[in-house]
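Standup notes, protein team

Yesterday: finished cleaning the Microbacterium bandirmense set.
Today: MFS transporter structure.
Blockers: none.

Input for MFS transporter:
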Amino acid sequence: MAQTSSSSAAPSLLALAGWPYFVIAFVARLPFAMMVVGVLTMVVTARGSLSLGGLASAAVGVGTAVIGPFLGAAADRYGQRPVLIAAAVLNAAMLALFAVVVYSPLGEPTVLLAGFAIGATAPQVSPMSRSRLVTIIDERMPAARRARTTSSTMSYESAADETWSASWRPSSRPGLPSRSPRC
Protein backbone atom coordinates (compact mmCIF):
# COMPACT_ATOMS: atom_id res chain seq x y z
CA MET A 1 0.00 0.00 0.00
CA ALA A 2 1.48 3.31 -1.07
CA GLN A 3 1.75 6.07 1.47
CA THR A 4 1.05 9.64 0.55
CA SER A 5 2.85 12.49 2.18
CA SER A 6 0.88 15.17 3.94
CA SER A 7 1.99 17.73 1.34
CA SER A 8 0.54 15.73 -1.58
CA ALA A 9 -2.77 15.30 0.26
CA ALA A 10 -3.02 19.02 0.99
CA PRO A 11 -5.53 20.98 -1.08
CA SER A 12 -4.38 22.98 -4.07
CA LEU A 13 -4.39 26.77 -4.15
CA LEU A 14 -7.41 26.58 -6.44
CA ALA A 15 -9.26 24.62 -3.76
CA LEU A 16 -8.10 26.93 -0.98
CA ALA A 17 -9.01 30.20 -2.72
CA GLY A 18 -11.95 28.80 -4.67
CA TRP A 19 -12.39 28.94 -8.44
CA PRO A 20 -14.79 31.93 -8.25
CA TYR A 21 -11.94 33.97 -6.77
CA PHE A 22 -9.76 33.33 -9.82
CA VAL A 23 -12.58 34.18 -12.24
CA ILE A 24 -13.42 37.42 -10.43
CA ALA A 25 -9.76 38.44 -10.02
CA PHE A 26 -9.15 37.79 -13.72
CA VAL A 27 -12.17 39.72 -15.01
CA ALA A 28 -11.62 42.57 -12.53
CA ARG A 29 -8.36 43.42 -14.30
CA LEU A 30 -10.14 44.45 -17.52
CA PRO A 31 -11.17 47.99 -16.51
CA PHE A 32 -7.63 48.85 -15.45
CA ALA A 33 -6.16 47.46 -18.65
CA MET A 34 -8.50 49.61 -20.73
CA MET A 35 -8.34 52.89 -18.79
CA VAL A 36 -5.25 54.29 -20.46
CA VAL A 37 -6.42 53.28 -23.94
CA GLY A 38 -9.91 54.65 -23.27
CA VAL A 39 -8.59 57.96 -21.98
CA LEU A 40 -6.34 58.36 -25.01
CA THR A 41 -9.12 57.49 -27.43
CA MET A 42 -11.68 59.77 -25.79
CA VAL A 43 -9.38 62.78 -25.64
CA VAL A 44 -8.18 62.37 -29.22
CA THR A 45 -11.74 61.94 -30.44
CA ALA A 46 -13.23 64.82 -28.44
CA ARG A 47 -10.37 67.31 -28.52
CA GLY A 48 -8.57 66.29 -31.71
CA SER A 49 -5.18 66.39 -30.00
CA LEU A 50 -2.97 63.33 -29.91
CA SER A 51 -0.50 65.12 -27.63
CA LEU A 52 -3.22 65.98 -25.09
CA GLY A 53 -4.48 62.40 -25.31
CA GLY A 54 -1.00 61.09 -24.57
CA LEU A 55 -0.54 63.48 -21.67
CA ALA A 56 -3.95 62.57 -20.23
CA SER A 57 -3.06 58.87 -20.49
CA ALA A 58 0.24 59.56 -18.77
CA ALA A 59 -1.66 61.42 -16.04
CA VAL A 60 -3.67 58.23 -15.42
CA GLY A 61 -0.40 56.35 -14.89
CA VAL A 62 0.98 59.05 -12.61
CA GLY A 63 -2.21 59.01 -10.53
CA THR A 64 -1.92 55.25 -10.10
CA ALA A 65 1.78 55.46 -9.21
CA VAL A 66 1.35 58.28 -6.71
CA ILE A 67 -1.84 57.12 -4.96
CA GLY A 68 -1.56 53.33 -5.39
CA PRO A 69 0.72 52.87 -2.35
CA PHE A 70 -1.80 54.74 -0.20
CA LEU A 71 -4.56 52.40 -1.38
CA GLY A 72 -2.31 49.50 -0.42
CA ALA A 73 -1.75 50.97 3.02
CA ALA A 74 -5.50 51.46 3.42
CA ALA A 75 -6.04 47.81 2.44
CA ASP A 76 -3.54 46.76 5.10
CA ARG A 77 -5.41 48.79 7.68
CA TYR A 78 -9.06 48.26 6.69
CA GLY A 79 -8.97 45.16 4.52
CA GLN A 80 -8.97 44.68 0.76
CA ARG A 81 -12.72 44.43 0.21
CA PRO A 82 -13.76 47.85 1.56
CA VAL A 83 -10.83 49.56 -0.16
CA LEU A 84 -11.52 47.88 -3.51
CA ILE A 85 -15.25 48.69 -3.29
CA ALA A 86 -14.60 52.33 -2.39
CA ALA A 87 -11.98 52.65 -5.13
CA ALA A 88 -14.31 51.07 -7.70
CA VAL A 89 -17.16 53.44 -6.85
CA LEU A 90 -14.87 56.49 -6.89
CA ASN A 91 -13.23 55.32 -10.11
CA ALA A 92 -16.59 54.94 -11.84
CA ALA A 93 -17.46 58.48 -10.75
CA MET A 94 -14.09 59.79 -12.01
CA LEU A 95 -14.57 58.05 -15.36
CA ALA A 96 -17.97 59.71 -15.76
CA LEU A 97 -16.54 63.06 -14.67
CA PHE A 98 -13.71 62.64 -17.16
CA ALA A 99 -16.19 62.27 -20.01
CA VAL A 100 -17.96 65.45 -18.90
CA VAL A 101 -14.65 67.34 -18.66
CA VAL A 102 -13.29 66.14 -21.99
CA TYR A 103 -16.45 67.11 -23.87
CA SER A 104 -16.74 70.46 -22.07
CA PRO A 105 -14.95 73.71 -22.88
CA LEU A 106 -12.79 73.35 -19.76
CA GLY A 107 -9.05 73.79 -20.32
CA GLU A 108 -6.35 71.22 -20.82
CA PRO A 109 -5.11 71.32 -17.20
CA THR A 110 -8.58 70.20 -16.09
CA VAL A 111 -8.43 67.27 -18.53
CA LEU A 112 -5.05 66.28 -17.09
CA LEU A 113 -6.30 66.58 -13.52
CA ALA A 114 -9.31 64.42 -14.38
CA GLY A 115 -6.95 61.84 -15.91
CA PHE A 116 -4.88 61.88 -12.73
CA ALA A 117 -8.06 61.30 -10.70
CA ILE A 118 -8.91 58.24 -12.80
CA GLY A 119 -5.52 56.72 -12.04
CA ALA A 120 -5.65 57.77 -8.40
CA THR A 121 -8.93 55.95 -7.84
CA ALA A 122 -8.12 52.87 -9.93
CA PRO A 123 -8.79 49.70 -7.90
CA GLN A 124 -5.47 47.94 -7.36
CA VAL A 125 -6.77 44.48 -8.27
CA SER A 126 -3.51 42.90 -9.43
CA PRO A 127 -1.31 43.69 -6.42
CA MET A 128 -4.11 42.91 -3.99
CA SER A 129 -4.75 39.58 -5.70
CA ARG A 130 -1.06 38.72 -5.46
CA SER A 131 -0.88 39.59 -1.77
CA ARG A 132 -4.07 37.63 -1.03
CA LEU A 133 -2.79 34.52 -2.81
CA VAL A 134 0.65 34.72 -1.20
CA THR A 135 -1.03 35.02 2.21
CA ILE A 136 -3.13 31.92 1.50
CA ILE A 137 0.00 30.06 0.40
CA ASP A 138 1.99 31.13 3.47
CA GLU A 139 -0.78 30.41 5.97
CA ARG A 140 -2.54 27.37 4.57
CA MET A 141 -0.14 25.38 2.36
CA PRO A 142 2.40 22.88 3.65
CA ALA A 143 5.90 24.35 3.83
CA ALA A 144 7.20 21.84 1.27
CA ARG A 145 4.82 23.18 -1.40
CA ARG A 146 5.04 26.92 -0.71
CA ALA A 147 8.00 27.86 -2.92
CA ARG A 148 6.74 26.03 -5.99
CA THR A 149 3.16 27.20 -5.49
CA THR A 150 4.29 30.81 -5.03
CA SER A 151 6.33 30.63 -8.22
CA SER A 152 3.42 29.15 -10.18
CA THR A 153 1.05 31.74 -8.72
CA MET A 154 3.25 34.66 -9.71
CA SER A 155 3.48 33.20 -13.22
CA TYR A 156 -0.30 32.96 -13.40
CA GLU A 157 -0.71 36.51 -12.06
CA SER A 158 1.68 37.93 -14.65
CA ALA A 159 -0.07 36.04 -17.43
CA ALA A 160 -3.46 37.27 -16.21
CA ASP A 161 -2.24 40.88 -16.29
CA GLU A 162 -0.73 40.51 -19.75
CA THR A 163 -3.74 38.70 -21.17
CA TRP A 164 -5.94 41.74 -20.75
CA SER A 165 -3.40 44.37 -21.70
CA ALA A 166 -2.05 42.47 -24.72
CA SER A 167 -5.45 41.43 -26.01
CA TRP A 168 -6.39 45.05 -26.69
CA ARG A 169 -3.28 46.03 -28.66
CA PRO A 170 -3.88 46.08 -32.43
CA SER A 171 -0.61 44.22 -32.99
CA SER A 172 -1.92 41.32 -30.90
CA ARG A 173 -4.95 40.78 -33.14
CA PRO A 174 -3.63 39.42 -36.44
CA GLY A 175 -5.97 39.96 -39.33
CA LEU A 176 -7.77 42.88 -37.73
CA PRO A 177 -7.04 46.32 -39.13
CA SER A 178 -5.40 48.91 -36.95
CA ARG A 179 -5.85 52.56 -37.61
CA SER A 180 -4.08 55.54 -36.13
CA PRO A 181 -6.27 58.46 -34.98
CA ARG A 182 -5.16 60.78 -37.83
CA CYS A 183 -5.42 58.41 -40.86
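Follow-up from PR in the comments: The radius of gyration is 20 Å.
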